[in-house]
Design a protein that fits this description.
- The chain has 477 residues and is mainly alpha-helical.
- It has 22 helices and no strands.
- The chain is elongated, with a radius of gyration of 27 Å.
- The termini are far apart.
């Protein structure tokens, strides 16, 4: 009722100010889960209305509109988001860009800039990362900042806030006296840092889309802008690594802020695996030890590093780094944990498997003793392959199994208390399935995996008489 009256009120009037203040008191109480379709459609109209006020007004109402928009759009996935996505290309998106630009370009307090950056993150969350670099037009007197300048404005603003927050957090955590007030200040700064990290991660994804040709056709971001953004990201990731170094020096390895730092480092290194090489070399073991506040042992920190690890282990130097602190065992433990979870994340599983396969292939001069972690991995791979008939799973699991058992013998495996004849039988069936697999001509990865399985089998078949017997019954190698 209130918002429907706003469109008839004069911009900047006392009435509109009072109406917005009343709306602001109510908006944070809204729950969208059980809202009727009619009311949800009304909410989308309200978002459009607030976006216009956010763009055109230059009074306190602008900030009220900003706060309401972040409240409405930052809620976890909701029916409102679906309706906003289904709207045709609309003026409301451009209005939000105009409002964000005004906040970030002018002298306003840091908390309002954080709200504007949160709103940018919300827009990318709802509409996709490419929203940041879409070329929007607006039929009004408002001037939309050119795409390249808008991208850099948002990124540079986020980078400045991140640098300040990292500095303040390090001081509060390690230098200042410990008080309850300080603890609350730390928590608030950690929440703000998480928002900024999420925004920067989405920006990394947008740049990746733009450089790989996967971005939206409407993207007009220039190469020079991309290079400028990458330079800035390099500097920010270096600051994040300094923050992690500080934590390492103070013996701190548990905390959601450290886990968030590991995540953004992993997101960037997934696209630029050799960036900040020396710092990564010195910090990788520590990153592998980071635990979130609710974790009992490191897991997610290792998962975040997998895209980078699967690339650097293609070369001997990357394998040496991983072997220098037994990091390959941490990856194996991580992989085993994945198979024990409900709803296995095959994407992360493949990355972990690729990392170990690369490590086994390129570990020149690195001796690998067969210990309990390899036995657990063999069992986990057999179990994973048993959950699906997908050829990619069959070939990847079998390839890694073929490489692992090349290090040992059937006699040794059966002498291990946690490896029995049933597991050996399942392993034999997996090898048979992979050897029977028809590999598409255009699938180079599966072709290479089958080559590894065949050549491996020929080397170790005599050491695994049970496996050899089963294979010979079903396929000729």
């Amino acid at each position: 009722m209130i918002f429907l009256q706003i469109s008839s009120l004069l911009d900047g009037s006392k009435c509109i100010e009072l109406a917005i203040n009343l709306m602001r008191l109510l908006v944070h109480k809204l729950k969208f889960d059980n809202m009727s379709v009619e009311n949800l459609q009304g909410m989308t109209s309200m978002v459009t209305c607030l976006a216009r006020l956010f763009a055109v007004l230059h009074t306190a109402v602008k900030f009220d509109a900003l706060h309401m928009l972040t409240t409405l759009l930052s809620q976890k996935e909701s029916p409102l988001h679906d309706l906003l996505r289904s709207m045709p290309a609309s003026i409301w998106e451009s209005n939000i860009r105009v409002g964000i630009t005004a906040i970030l370009q002018n002298r306003v307090v840091s908390s309002e800039k954080l709200h504007a950056l949160l709103l940018a993150e919300c827009m990318m969350s709802i509409l996709g990362e490419d929203w940041l670099s879409e070329d929007c037009k607006i039929q009004d007197t408002q001037n939309v900042l050119p795409v390249d300048k808008f991208v850099l404005l948002v990124l540079e603003s986020a980078r400045i806030e991140v640098a300040v927050l990292l500095n303040e957090l390090a001081y509060l955590k390690y230098e200042s006296s410990k008080t309850s007030q300080t603890d609350e200040a730390v928590c608030q700064k950690q929440r703000n840092l998480a928002i900024l990290f999420s925004l920067i991660e989405r920006t990394i994804k947008m740049i990746s889309n733009a450089t790989s040709g996967e971005g939206a056709p409407s993207q007009t971001i220039r190469e020079s802008t991309i290079m400028q953004a990458i330079t800035g990201l390099n500097e920010t990731i270096s600051l994040v690594l300094d923050f992690l170094q500080d934590a390492k020096d103070h013996g701190q390895q548990k905390g959601d802020d450290l886990l968030a730092a590991a995540r953004i480092v992993g997101s960037y290194l997934a696209e630029a695996p050799y960036a900040c090489k020396e710092k990564i070399r010195n910090l990788l073991e520590f990153i592998f030890s980071i635990e979130g506040q609710d974790e009992s042992s490191p897991f997610y920190s290792i998962c975040f590093m997998l895209p980078m690890l699967s690339q650097i282990t293609m070369e001997a130097d990357g394998c040496i780094i991983l072997a220098s602190f037994g990091g390959y065992k941490a990856v194996i433990d991580c992989l085993v944990k994945m198979t024990e979870q409900d709803g296995i994340d095959n994407g992360s599983m493949f990355l972990a498997c690729d990392t170990i396969i690369n490590f086994m292939s390129n570990r020149k001069g690195v001796n690998i003793p067969v210990d309990s972690c390899f036995i657990r991995l063999l069992k986990a791979l057999v179990a994973w392959a048993g959950t699906t008939n997908a050829s990619s799973v069959t070939m990847t699991a079998s390839c890694l199994c073929a490489m692992l058992i090349d290090l040992t013998s059937e006699e040794f495996l059966l002498s291990c208390s946690d490896f029995d004849t049933k597991t050996l039988g399942s392993l034999s069936e997996l090898i048979v399935r992979s050897l029977q697999q028809d590999v598409p001509d255009d699938d180079e990865e599966q072709f290479n995996q089958k080559q590894i399985i065949v050549s491996g089998y020929r080397r170790w078949a005599d050491r695994f008489p049970h496996v050899k017997n089963v294979v010979e019954q079903h396929v000729s190698v």
